[in-house]
Amino acid sequence: VFSPVFNVAVPLIDRHVQEGRSQHVALRTVSSEVTYGALAENVNRCSNVLRACGAASGDRVLMVVKDCPEFVYLFWGAIKAGIVPVPVNTLLRAPDYQYMIEDSGCAIVAYSPEYAAEVEPALASADAQPVVMPIEGGDETLQSRLQGASSSLLPASASAEDPCFWLYSSGSTGRPKGAVHRHRDIVVTGVYYAEETLGMTADDICFSAAKLFFAYGLGNAMTFPLWVGATAILSDLRPSPEMTFDLIQRFKPTLYFGVPTLYAAQLRALETEVVDWPSLRLCVSAGEALPADIFRRWKEKTGLTILDGIGSTELLHIFISNREDDVKPGTSGRPVPGYEARIVDENGDAVADGEVGRLWIKGDSSAAYYWNNPEKTAETMLGEWVNTGDTYVRDAEGYYVYGGRSDDMLKVGGIWCSPVEIESRLIEHAKVLEAAVVGREDDDQLVKPEAYIILNDTSDASDALAEELLEHCKTGLARYKYPRWLHFVDELPKTATGKIQRFKLRKSG
Ligand code: 3SK
User: Nearest 5 degrees, angle CA 242-CA 170-CA 61?
Assistant: First the structure.
């Protein structure tokens, strides 16, 4: 139950100071520690900086920002001032950012200098002139502006139902869609998942290998710890076994949030490395289905349970999950209390247990709509229900088992990937006539892109050309999207109307 006036920055930021937790550490990085008191002051400074830049209530601030304290100041500074933060994937390329700048109509673009090579060309070609604010590295940066800003601010008046922040969500075709989340959504996921499913308290120290720009990382390492008054570890390093082992031993987290691809890589590294885990009480996995074998090997090696779950950008966080006292390896678990799940056929009618159908979810954290996109909103937000686009089976014991996507989307290392985008990049190469991309399981049973290619001249097929095409993908796409397997073929399976039948390629693989 929310009061009629409700700005979520008050319970997540100011409340800790009001309740005497100013000295408790909110954020920890390899080089700094930010207490709840300092966080509240920096959030206010940030609100004042954003307002001084001319941002008004409801304006958007696009954030291409690495995991660091300034991410948190900016996100909450915007919300407290009634401005809408839009954190976006930092692994994207200039055309993606150009699209998001134009689509969001943002008033401000804030970016970490590490991403300048993609963000600055996007700004130069965008059909819009937002205020440009690098986070650090000179004058007129967020860091320098914070120094001169006032640390007091009254929260902007808002209601729990008002737009609060957006997250972009990708589809198999078309551009990413801005899912508009409300103030209440952060509280709903904090209560239902962080408190009631994970048992998170102020004593927890949270470490998420998934970055803050993902809905998954945003909850794990920011909104959940701030909701319960816990500590979050932030690192701008690329997640790897070495990085995670180092931070776990250094900062002694109690909760670790990973993705299956990383758990598999960590298990490989643990064959030769010894790591101490005394601080951890629980591990979490999402982003893609966790194979039962990885669950078992992790338990054997570390003694720790991984709670696998599934969430979505539209629902903000995990809505079906295993629980510490109720785990079935190889399944996503059961609905998180507070959410309802239905598995339906193409008419929207519930299917029987054991039958495959589309997963619909009902819960109070669902995005209100997609920005500027009534068509996709109508396809996905079905009254109180959200069509997740995933296919699932509920087994006889009530556990939900992932069955793939109902479109052709892939999750690679936990991040959505459109086969169409990879195909388009391949076709840009002068020697490629047609391409089709599907998901294929690697040795760890985790999905990676696989490409089938028809060349203009079939006699050009060679290992050297395959290498060249991989390089072409790596440079033109976010790096994780490049195909891990590449086949030159003479034809592709197609429907009578010429649509590629990717399901046939998946079967033949
Ligand atoms: O991919 C998931 O399972 C997920 C989990 C939590 C939040 C967001 C997402 C997409």
Answer: 85
**Residue 216 CB less than 6 A away from ligand 1:** yes
Q: Is 313 in the pocket of ligand 1 (CB under 6 A)?
A: yes
Best CA proximity match to 179, nearest among 288, 102, 100:
100
pLDDT in tens, 192-211: 999 999 999 999 999 999 99
Question: Which residue has the least CA distance to atom 9 on ligand 1?
Answer: 312
First to last CA, the chain: 51
Cross-strand bridge partners of residue 132: 109
Nearest to 248 by CA among 222, 273, 218: 273
Query: Does ligand 1 lie within 6 Å of residue 310's CB atom?
Result: yes
Q: Which whole number is the average pLDDT over 283-296?
A: 93
Q: Is 287 in the pocket of ligand 1 (CB under 6 A)?
A: yes
Full DSSP string of 254-274: SEEEE-HHHHHHHHHHTTT--
Q: Quote the ligand 1 centre to 315 CA distance (angstroms).
A: 8
Q: How far is the CA of 187 from the centre of ligand 1 (A)?
A: 17
Q: pTM of this prediction?
A: 0.89
Tokens of 433: 């006539």
| Alpha carbon distance 113, 135 (integer Å) | 7
At 349, give phi and psi (nearest 5°): -90, 140
**What separation in Å is there between the alpha carbon of 222 and the centre of ligand 1?**
15
As a whole number, mean pLDDT of residues 236-247 equals 96
- The answer for residues whose C-beta is within 8 angstroms of residue 423's C-beta and 6 or more apart is 435, 436, 437, 451
Strand 334-335 vs strand 340-344: parallel, antiparallel, or unpaired? unpaired
Q: How far apart are CA 123 and CA 102, in angstroms?
A: 9
Confidence of residue 173 (pLDDT cuts 50, 70, 90): low
Residue the block writes with tokens 């150009």? 98
Q: Say if CB 361 and CB 388 are below 8 A apart.
A: yes
Pocket test for ligand 1, best of 211, 213, 214, 314 (most atoms within 8 A of CB): 214
In whole angstroms, give the CA distance from residue 159 to residue 162. Answer: 5
**Mutate which of 290, 312, 366, 415 for ligand 1 pocket (most atoms within 8 A of beta carbon):** 312
312 lines ligand 1 (CB under 6 A): yes
Q: Does the Cβ of 223 fall within 6 Å of ligand 1? A: no
Task: Compute how many other C-beta atoms are within 10 angstroms of the C-beta atom of residue 250.
Answer: 11
